[in-house]
Sequence to fold (149 residues):
Amino acid sequence: MNLYGCSIGARTRIGTFVEIQKNVVVGDDCKISSHSFICEGVTLEDGVFIGHGVMFTNDTYPRAVNADGSLQTEADWIVIPTLVKRHASIGSNATILPGITIGEAAQVGAGAVVTKDVPDGAIVAGVPARITGRVHDRSVNMQALGGMR
Fold:
């Protein structure tokens, strides 16, 4: 696991071969499965689940070189923040594009490419990810998880 100047909450579990870049905030009681990449600008609130091989991106227009032909450096990148709210779940091999908010208790299907915000309690799947349903018995499930705010 590679952790670079990030903040990791209490009781959070992180699998092998995970990279979490600087300025990432991970809340309490999260689970981040192996081979996932969480880039600068991502915030995971409490109780978030990240499946194996999940990829976050933070630059809308990534390039190797600038318009003048010079190699880009860290100073040239524009980090677009991404937020994953409480108790959301992201399935294995999903890709989350920059600037996305994944709502509270939302579920992202395995292999989905999330290009738009996901509402609270929504289930999304596909490429691009589309709403396919709602989390059922959400109030009962959320009570077991400590309640919704």
The longest helix spans residues 138-144. The CA atoms of residues 79 and 141 lie 34 Å apart. The helical segments are 138-144. The radius of gyration is 16 Å.
